[in-house]
Amino acid sequence: MTGNKSLQKPAHIERANKASDIVNESIVFSQLPSSWHPYIRLARLDRPIGTWLLLIPCWQGLALAFASSQSSLDWQLIYFAILFALGAVLMRGAGCALNDIADRNIDGKIARTALRPIPAGDITVRQAIVFMMLLMFGGALVLIQFNLPTIIVGLASLPFAAIYPFMKRFTWWPQLFLGIAFNWGILVGWTAIVEQLSWPPIILYLAGVMWTLGYDTIYAHQDKEDDALVGVKSTARLFQAKSKYWISAFYVLSILGTVAAGFLAGLSALLILFLTPFAYHLIRQSLKTNFNEPAECLLAFKSNRNAGFLMLVGIILTKLFQA
């Protein structure tokens, strides 16, 4: 498929080049044909942080289910973890394509996103839709490898994923809807093992929503000036100078929720010790980041991959040491 190069480029092209979130030096570009590059950018394969933030909750749900059981680590858990990794790549790519289709008339007006494939004229809307459908078909093939409760829970996430890209037009809380969609993997990961929902994954899911509210508010601070000009809403614009306090509150709720979910799943008080690095990471992030510096905001946002792993490792270590 080839892009439509006749579409008009953004007028503020020089500023867009400086602020763009396109990562031209990514290794994936050197490994794949140039005709694929616009689709790599559309699916954000050049920027895997979003995939990590979608995948890690799946693994956290798996880990919590493992921690609540009497079984030892086995090949089924590893197999499920691999399936979730493949599914996260496919569904995150589909979600990014939907987001760019929905935002095609907004992205061209914001310096950071003006050179994304659709507003830059490298891909047409029709091509993006076809690409998105192919990714969703691949995601469906992954999902049907699980048990029926997991398939049902997984399908239930689709309405939230579908409406998220449009929420910034109607509510100051689009980050909440991202949290609802991005942390659904906790519920899916749990049901892959336990085959039914209960309070531990639900509490961990709510903790994950709080975590996303924090880190995506930080992310939104990169675009707050452009967002104000084009009328896009966000928690960054809503909280403004009070963002530090709001983000800290979200992170504290996330930490407490994670501990509560672990206790409900049968983990011992060792969990508090093993979650200390996770808690320190989040609180330091909320207090030390300069929300008026886009580069700092992006760095803090990306560091949440490490935060997610610290939480994941904390759950696993508690299970292993109390066994």
Structure commentary:
The protein is mainly alpha-helical. It has one domain (13-322): UbiA prenyltransferase (Tetracycline Repressor, domain 2). Helix content is 71%, strand content 0%. It has 19 helices and no strands. Helix 5 packs parallel to helix 9, helix 12 (199-220) packs antiparallel against helix 15 and helix 17 packs antiparallel against helix 19. The chain is globular, with a radius of gyration of 20 Å. The N and C termini lie far apart (54 Å). Mean pLDDT is 89; it is low at 1-20.
What's the pLDDT, averaged over the residues? 89
Overall 3D geometry?
Answer: globular
Category by helix and strand content:
mainly alpha
Instruction: Count the E strands.
Output: 0
CATH class: Mainly Alpha
Amount of beta strand: under 5%
Annotated CATH topology? Tetracycline Repressor, domain 2
Stretches where pLDDT falls below 50 for ≥5 residues?
A: 1-20
Alpha carbon gyration radius: 20 Å
Order of helices and strands: HHHHHHHHHHHHHHHHHHH
Helix content: over 70%
